[in-house]
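Let us begin with a simple case.
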Amino acid sequence: MAEKKIGKTDKQRTAEGSALSNLMLDLFKLNSRVLTAGDRLVADLGLTSSRWQVLGTIMASEQPQPVAWLAKDMGTSRQNVQRIVNDLAKEDLVAFEPNPHHQRANLVVLTQKGRQVIEETEQRQIPWVNALAEGIALEDIQAMHRVIMTLAEKLEELKG
């Protein structure tokens, strides 16, 4: 893929800064495409990519967590996750349990229906992601993962 020019501000960027800026623009496009493809993959289950992400975060948690902790794990706002969790609760995909450590911050847990939906999404995601990975070297995927995680850590540090 040809290198893109950002514009006049490139004179102030290092070569690495310019390359990272180009990568970020491409990541925005990729994120949009991933969300759109995810929405299509699970639409008939009553999910969107956002709902799927919340359910997956709940499933991946070692123990039930309040909404604020789920949001932190996802790197998004508590309000956004709360809205989605409330919608999922209305559809009996999640439930709230008392939190022994905080009276007002209930724990979010998957219901049986929620577990079934997550299992179905996983069955669909496996062949989809395997097909996407075809032709990409494992080492390249792992290197990109390291870069993304390093950038996430740096952004978290800058947040202060």
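The second case is a distinct protein. As before, the sequence precedes its structure tokens.
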Amino acid sequence: MKKLLLLLMMGIFGLGCSQQAPKVLKTGFSEEALNQKLEDEEGKSISIQQILDQHKGKVVVIDFWAGWCRDCLKALPKAKELEEHNKNIDFVFLSLDRSKEGFDKNLERFEMKDKENYWFATGWKNDFNNYVDLNWIPRYMVIDQKSAIAKYYAISPEDPEIQAAIDQLLK
């Protein structure tokens, strides 16, 4: 009986902690979200708007990740495959590592130095992450050529809707 109760409680806890898709799938960003500051690898401040402006006219995949996130690390090989399969797409990696030292160490450790990386120095709770309903990582978004959101919510690089969104935008 104790084992059954324990299994039931673990199941309820697991459901309560699992990632839930947002009820509203947004297609654009708020001004507050666009003004959110991150840091690049050199520690320079940059806004989401500035990052998107650098990619205007291109399809972008945003990958939210952290070196401490077991699910993110398990997804890295498939994320790399997605990137290799879409060489004409820009990939931007937004780190939720807990410190600048951790961010730098994890870029090196997971061979991410050759990618476009930014770090949320403000932590998990900020205007951008709150706006995009970030409740778990990894998380993937596809941004179109005009900086609108084409695919709002994917939790795996293997989600076929990511590739479908990319293919649709490149037609």
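The helical segments are 2-17, 31-34, 48-54, 70-85, 100-109, 127-131, 160-169. The longest strand covers residues 60-65.
Keep these points in mind for the review questions at the end of the chapter.
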